[in-house]
Every structure is written in C-alpha cells, then in structure tokens.
Amino acid sequence: MTEKEKIVTKEENNAAEQPTEAKGKGNKTIIMMGVVILISVGGAFVFVSKVYPFLTGNVQPDIVGQKAEVVAETEEVQAVKQPRTEKEPASASKNKEEKGKGSKDGAGNEESLIIPLDTLIVNLSGSNGRRYLKVKINLDAKDGDVKKLIEAKSIQIKDRLISILSSKTLEDIEGLEARENLRKEVKDAVDVVLKAEGVLQVYFTEFVVQ
C-alpha cells in the first residue's frame, strides 16, 4: 500500500468515527439535562412544601391541633370576660317600677300625715294672769281620711285644746311625766272630737312657760 492510500484510509476511518463520537456526546448531554431538570423540580417542590405547606397539602397534624386548641381557649376566655346577661322580662321590670313608685308614694303619704296645728297661747290656772303657756302641737294622723277629718274640724279641736291647757296649773305641766300625761290628754281630746281613734301620736314642737 502506497503512502497516499494509507493517508486516505486513515481519513476515512476518522470520518467514520466522528459521527459515533458526536452521537455519544449528544446522548450524554440529553441525560445530563434531564437530571438537572429533575433535581430542579424536586428542589422546587421541597421549597414550596416547606414555605407554603397548604399548597401541597403537607400540613402537620400537631400544628393544626395546637391552632385549634388556641382558638378554643381564646373563645373560652372571651366567654368568661363577657358574661351572659339575661334580659329581664318587661312584666317584671314594670312590676319593680310600680313597686318602687308605690314605696315613694307611701313614704310621701306618711310624711304628709303629720298635721301642724296653730300655736296656742293660754294663761295658766291659778297664776292670776301672770304666767302663760305657749305650745305648738303636731298631730300624727292614722291615715289620709283622718287627716282630712282633722283639717275639717280644726276649729273644734283648737277650742277643745285651749280649754284643756288653760285649766292646767304650773305644777300640772312641769317635768317629763307631767308632759307625757298632757300629751295623752291632748290625744284623747282630739279623738273625742273626731269620734274615732285617728291620732297615733302627739308632738310638742314648742313648749314655753313664762
């Protein structure tokens, strides 16, 4: 074989080997690209599952349970802080208002049953006009009807009391016991005029002897 034939044969062999090597390199490149793509997809899935677990359904049961317990405890605390208030029925509220109003009216009536009489000035018996008694009397009426009756018969009551007081001597009205007896006598005299036991108590708001 001549030198030229050897060179031609070698070039033909090199030309035949180059497509095979190029084909092998192309297959390796495709495989490496596939591996890179798989690694990238896997890494992306892991990243998403860690950062956004709800997107992948990768939620840990313990965390969900803890969140549920926290929500339940928060609701219990709010229930304790905001106690349940039951609305009172309208009828019960109305009864309370009427009862309170009745109590106020009753208190007002009780105060208005005290009836002040005119101030009485009489000469004491046995003093020859030198000593006199000045007295202010208040009557505690039994009820509203008695009060009206006392007011209607105030002149008769005043005349009766002047007769009683002017008959008293200085000794008859001195001392606590004497005044208590006089208080009872005034009460009985008013009841006689009223023709009923309508006076509960007699008060001396002024009692002066001169």
Key structural traits:
single chain; 210 residues; alpha+beta; Tetrahydropterin Synthase, Chain A; 2 domains; four-stranded antiparallel sheet; 8 helices; 68% helix
Walk me through this protein's architecture:
This protein is an alpha+beta fold. The protein folds into 2 domains: 3-81; 112-209, Band 7 domain (Tetrahydropterin Synthase, Chain A), CATH 3.30.479.30. Helices cover 68% and strands 13% of the residues. It has helices at residues 3-51, 53-56, 61-81, 90-112, 144-152, 154-166, 170-173, 176-194, and strands at 114-116, 120-123, 132-141, 199-209. Strands 1, 2, 3 and 4 form a 4-stranded antiparallel beta sheet that branches. A hairpin with an 8-residue loop joins strand 2 and strand 3 (132-141). Helix 6 runs antiparallel to helix 8 (176-194). Mean pLDDT is 74; it is low at 106-110.
